[in-house]
């Protein structure tokens, strides 16, 4: 009995020493020897061919400790103030060996077309987006650790303060009239707006009388003031009807509004 | 009695020295986790007290009662103070969670092993007493 008890005592003592030494040194090494450097968030200056906005952030992980880091995972979630999730990005490094320095590029992709189809608020209103960042890893490949933080980024609306003015009727010659509708907005977005303004004239019987396109170009962070113009045969202008104005860009096709006349 | 007191004092000093050395490594984490320092200090104080009392009671059956109490105290205190193994805190707008459930599980298992050992020691002590009485 005494031998068995002694054996248990020795085994327990050694296990305690090993457990404490390992846990304390792993946590100590994690605090002292692991450095995470988050680079400047690189906001895109233009969209990709697929109308995607790629937000990129370089992350440098320096592991000078005696243990490997397992399952290093960075998650970014961008949502609006109401909790609507705009996008979610994830970057994973299966293992970071000891005494290594690695730099990864954490990319978060937002499809602008999808975004605008989900919510028109992003088109017309400046807003604040909530950026949730989470980093998780396994210290010494055994002890899971997770850190998270919330920050906000400003979203500039591409068609901020959109206004359609009263249509102007200008007689070009005896047969034709030019109808001009003033269109104005502020492009607060980081990307340029280039496309066409389409104006369609409908009679009171709801038949299409005429339609015409005007090229539009509104660089980022500029105020746009222009006209949607249409040449119509003077005889074709009915006593009443409506004008419909559309904006067509590579990102989105949008009905800007209707103006009734007569 | 003096020998017992001396032995208890030496054990207490060794344990405190061990705590002191380990604390140097844990200190950077303790500054981020609220209440961790107090929890560890309380643990060390109660553990040393039970160890000293157990040492004074050595040679009697009560020695094993205190040893068993010490093991049960470790289990209970670790479970409560470590919040079930999820240690959380915040540092400069960053919230973090350290999952030490594996450590906790192993610590509880080792404590249970220690508890079993104490029970065996108590049985051994009683049986030896009975044998001496018979002789």
How would the blueprint of this fold be written?
The complex is a heterodimer of chains A (262) and B (135).
Chain A: H1 2-33, E1 34-38, E2 52-63, E3 69-79, E4 85-96, E5 100-111, H2 112-118, H3 121-124, E6 127-139, E7 143-155, E8 160-164, E9 168-171, E10 176-187, E11 193-203, E12 208-218, E13 222-233, E14 241-249, E15 253-261
Antiparallel strand pairs in A: 1-2, 2-5, 3-4, 3-6, 6-7, 8-10, 9-10, 10-13, 11-12, 11-14, 14-15
Chain B: H1 2-30, H2 36-56, H3 62-81, E1 86-91, E2 94-99, H4 101-134
Antiparallel strand pairs in B: 1-2
Task: Please work out how many helical segments of chain B DSSP would assign.
Answer: 4
Multimerization state: heterodimer
Unreliable runs of chain A: none
Calculate the terminal CA-CA distance of chain B, rounded to whole Å.
28 Å
Main sheet record of chain A = 4 strands, antiparallel
Relative strand content of chain B: 5-15%
The strand order across the widest sheet of chain B is: 1-2
What sort of overall outline of chain B do the alpha carbons produce when their principal axes are compared? elongated
Question: Count of DSSP E strands of chain A?
Answer: 15
The averaged pLDDT of chain B comes out at 85
Q: In which range does the helix fraction of chain A lie?
A: 10-25%
């Amino acid at each position: 009995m005494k031998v068995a008890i002694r054996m248990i005592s020795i085994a327990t003592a050694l296990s305690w020493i090993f457990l404490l030494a390992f846990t304390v040194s792993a946590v100590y090494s994690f605090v002292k020897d692991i450095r995470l450097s988050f680079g400047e968030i690189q906001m895109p200056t233009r969209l990709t061919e697929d109308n995607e906005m790629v937000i990129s952030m370089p992350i440098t992980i320096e592991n000078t400790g005696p243990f490997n880091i397992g399952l290093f995972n960075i998650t970014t979630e961008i949502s609006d103030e109401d909790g609507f999730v705009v996008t979610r990005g994830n970057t994973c490094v299966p293992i970071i060996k000891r005494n290594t320095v690695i730099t990864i590029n954490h990319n978060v992709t937002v499809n602008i077309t999808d975004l605008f189809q989900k919510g028109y608020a992003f088109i017309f209103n400046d807003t604040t987006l909530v950026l949730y960042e989470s980093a998780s890893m396994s210290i010494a490949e055994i002890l899971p650790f997770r850190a998270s933080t919330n920050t906000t980024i400003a979203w500039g609306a591409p068609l901020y303060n959109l206004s359609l003015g009263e249509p102007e009727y200008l007689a070009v010659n005896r047969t034709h009239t030019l109808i001009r509708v003033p269109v104005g907005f502020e492009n607060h977005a980081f990307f340029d707006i280039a496309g066409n303004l389409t104006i369609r004239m409908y009679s009171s019987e709801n038949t299409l009388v005429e339609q015409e396109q005007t090229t539009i170009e509104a660089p980022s962070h500029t105020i746009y003031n222009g006209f949607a113009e249409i040449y119509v045969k003077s005889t074709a202008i009915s006593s009443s009807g409506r004008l419909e104005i559309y904006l067509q860009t590579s990102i989105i096709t949008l009905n800007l509004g209707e103006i009734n006349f007569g | 009695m003096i020998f017992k007191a001396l032995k208890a004092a030496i054990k207490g000093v060794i344990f405190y020295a061990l705590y002191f050395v380990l604390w140097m490594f844990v200190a950077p984490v303790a500054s981020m986790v609220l209440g961790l320092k107090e929890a560890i200090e309380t643990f060390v104080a109660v553990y040393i007290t039970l160890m000293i009392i157990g040492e004074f009671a050595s040679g009697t059956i009560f020695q094993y009662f205190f040893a068993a109490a010490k093991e049960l105290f470790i289990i209970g205190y670790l479970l409560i103070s470590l919040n079930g193994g999820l240690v959380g805190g915040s540092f400069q707008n960053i919230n973090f969670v350290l999952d030490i459930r594996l450590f906790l599980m192993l610590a509880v298992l080792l404590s249970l092993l220690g508890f079993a050992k104490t029970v065996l020691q108590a049985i051994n002590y009683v049986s030896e007493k009975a044998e001496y009485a018979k002789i």
